[in-house]
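Data availability (excerpt). The following record was deposited with the supplementary files.
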Amino acid sequence: MGDMANLFGTGRFAQPSGQPSDQEEAADEAQEAADEAAEEVRLRLAVDGGDVEAMSVLGALLLRRGDFDGAESHLRAATAAGDRAAANNLGVLLHQRGYADEAAGWWRIAAVAGSAAAAHALGRHFRERGDEPAAEYWLCQSAEQGHVLGAYALADLLEHRGDDTGSERWMRAAAERGHREAAYRLARTLDRRAGRRDGGDDEAAALAADEAEQWYRQAAARGHRRGALHLGTILEKRGELKEAGRWYLTSAKDGEARAACALGFLLRDAGDTESAAVWWLRAAQDGDGNAANALGALHAERGETQTAERWYRAAMDAGDDNGAYNLGLLCAEQGRTTQAEQWYRRAAYAGHREASNALAILLLRAGDETGAEPWFSKAAEAGSVDAAFNLGILHAGRSEERAALRWYERAAAAGHTEAALQVGMARLRGGDEREAERFLRCAAGGGSAEAAYRLATVLDARRPPAPAHELGEPAQEKSECEEWYERAASQGHRRAQVRVGMLAAARGDVVEAARWYREAAEAGSRNGAFNLGLLLAREGSEPEAVVWWRRAADAGHGRAALRLALVFARRGELAEGQRWADLAVSLGPAEVGERAARLRDALRQELSA
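Predicted structure:
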């Protein structure tokens, strides 16, 4: 898949530093073992001398090592001598051996004697037994003595009970004392609070989000892989990609599949698809459906459709509905319509809104409008903007204008450009010019050339007549409607191009007018060709003007045909003039038809004389 260090070598992501070598780690372990053996010898000598504290410490050491038999005798002896730590550890030993009730008895003795650790263990014991009041009492005893595990366990119990205030208090206490899971859970609580924006208080939400980030950072720094993942997500959204990548990398190396997947997307966006594929592969193998989909898309882009299909299936098996949807897209691109419908249906039945929309389009193209409409509705109700727009088209095709407008409005409210155009045009037809303008502005701002043109015509109709432009006077500033005409014209809208040309001609800018007329004419606009002919004729280029009038007349422009008839009549080519006059009569409009008929009759008489 490529060199995983491609981006690490560029400094785009920070690399971990100061890591000990394998030899150093082995040497440290050997030294620790030697130190522990020496400590054990010292403790045994002290125990032989009757040192109670040594008995307790030696029992704890043997307990950690798993030597329960050796530990028990020392712990019982130290407990009998009144050592509360030994009583607590004896409870731990008995609990591990399966004697839970006897363990609880020793924990109670130690807890009453003031052992916070024993109070925590006793609270956990009662919670496992379902005795929540007793559990809360002992956990509270432990937490109030500053025991971090007691504070965390108490917070967890209160959260389960629905006491959010108490839970947050003790979760915060545990987090402040270094408990990484408490730091993570506190961050999640604050994150949810920031997302809810309770009471519309944006400032409070922002403060909660800032504090959440701080606790994610503390959890991540203590090795919490999901904390590192969430911290990376926050940093990525803020655009701090280098640090985000570092935390994703930390989390991914600790086995967090979602972090590996996110790191893959970060690498892909940075242009390193090979390294991205390595991390997606790791995440997909750990069951991340999103990563499997990303691998499928990567192979599909390369034309490796069989491999793409395999990864889409893996995503689907991981419970990601996008896998079935992507399989549908893949089959549709290959012309395998039956299989595409099958996969779209599978994703659609699972609630995938885009799959529902795609299935509806597939059925509509097959002529099954009845089958398509419910899937469009399901997708639209689930929030698919495209489906809402498609429903508008469906109803408009049946002349159900009110229903069509309702769906267009829903799509337009979600930012659909073409839907906003349709609503604007409907408002124009209904005479509501102000509302029409509002929707046309939305559509035009979204890039619709037609909306820009229609908005310009609305504004143009309101514009007062421009004062006559005297030669030598500075040209007036362009109005807003001209700016919208130009935006539409620059996007290839032919009528807008003609209108921009007319406005330029009115300002006396012949070169600019000719440029826009020519652009429109070459794109097939007969009005553009006619106006270009007029401009050329006025500039003394009648032969070239005839070329453009001929093009316009052939496209059905009556005035262009009349102009041609006049040109050929002046040249003495009476038959050709009569032919164009006949065409002008048939094309109209009425005024042109009348003039063309008089010219035709005159030419006919001249020819028959």
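Summary of structural features: The CA atoms of residues 486 and 500 lie 6 Å apart.
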